[in-house]
Amino acid sequence: MITADDFGFGLATSAGIVHAHLHGPVNRTSMMVVTGDHVKASVQLLDETPDLNVGLHLVFTDVGHSALAATPASRLVNSQRRFLSIQQLYFRCMSANIDVSAAFDEVCAQADLFHKLLGRAPTHVDGHHHAHQFPVIRQAMLRAMNEGLLPRVTRRTIEAPGILAAVSSCRARRIVLNMLGHSAAIDFRREGISVNDYFFGVLGEQDLSEENPWEQYLAALPPRGEVEWMVHQGFYDESLIDRDRYIL
Hints:
By secondary structure, the chain is of the alpha/beta class. It has helices at 11-23, 37-43, 86-94, 100-118, 137-146, 163-166, 171-191, 215-219; strands at 2-7, 28-31, 53-58, 125-127, 153-154, 194-195, 198-200, 227-231. Helix content is 35%, strand content 12%.
């Protein structure tokens, strides 16, 4: 499967994802719902894509917008109710310095808004910056799944054996993602959650200048298993300036 993350981040980003589905290999996207008018405008594009699987892209890291439910007392957000940086969130989750019930409430608020925007349930759920795998956040997500509020399908960031050695790009970051994926997989397995076998899709800025930055990844893929190719597709999106570094 090829999943384009960040649908709803900005209208041009979303339009690029739709184009990549209609004219290319993208068959799944993950939609963030906390982005106000950006996601509201983006949803209209989905009328063109009845065969595109749309999941919920849980947001718990800063994307330039306020949380739906979380307050500063939860320690999930700052005094302006903006989400934290990925580093701040990770360390707070690792130290259990976050209100678990508040994390659950935020998951539920984002799931509820997805239903209101699309009129249907998401096909899967994952997280911006893979935060759905962080301790506390994944506990809240799993509770929502067990209560029937989210589908029992998610992503784990485990690369196939041998790929870490075969592909040199962003190795340190990918080692961290693999460790996070293996840790989360223990809980996913125990709860009977459907997950991909492997994933790939991490590139550095220097890779983008290459004609085929995916060549090493594709050559090292295993012959069997469900592999999720994660991409950040989209047209050039000025709305992402100062909100995200993935501007194509």
